[in-house]
Amino acid sequence: MTHGGHHCSLGVLEVESLARLTASNLPTTFRARGRRGNSFPVVFQKEEALKQRKEVSLQLRSLREELTHSVSCCERLQKEKEEVCVALEAAVLKLQEQHQAELTQLEETLRDFYSAEWDKTHQAYQEEADKYRALMQKQVEEMRRKQEALRKEQEVAHVQEMEALRQEYEASLAVSFYSILSLFISECRGVCEAGP
To answer: What is the pTM of this model?
Structure first.
């Protein structure tokens, strides 16, 4: 764009410079030829002046057209520059929005991933805890059954022991009773046999 602006300024300067140069040279040329008027006819001088003026006018027109073209190019380049700047700003803004959206998506993905991993870990821990709890409960129940069986065995043994002691006691009482009864019978017989 700087090159275009420089080209536009140069065209204006060229036109102005050429216009001043032409305007300053024409009177000098006419005066110089006027002084040599004795050598050329007046009609030729007028024709030459008209010819030079026509050439200068054509040059000025050409320079004016070139200047107009240069200004048009400058305006077009300026417009293209503004369009490019707008497009770049839009592209940068779009990239920033896309980057932010990707970051947000990545954060959500990571959050979901770690949440899923935490759920899996917690579930595995809960399953292990339930397994050990069930195992402990089974061991406690097994111990309780053994204790109950041992208690029943002890009760049965105690009952059997008490029954044996009772039978032994009753047998001992029976032996003592029969011994006393036999002794009494023997004494009664001795008394009867002794008689009066």
So the answer is: 0.36
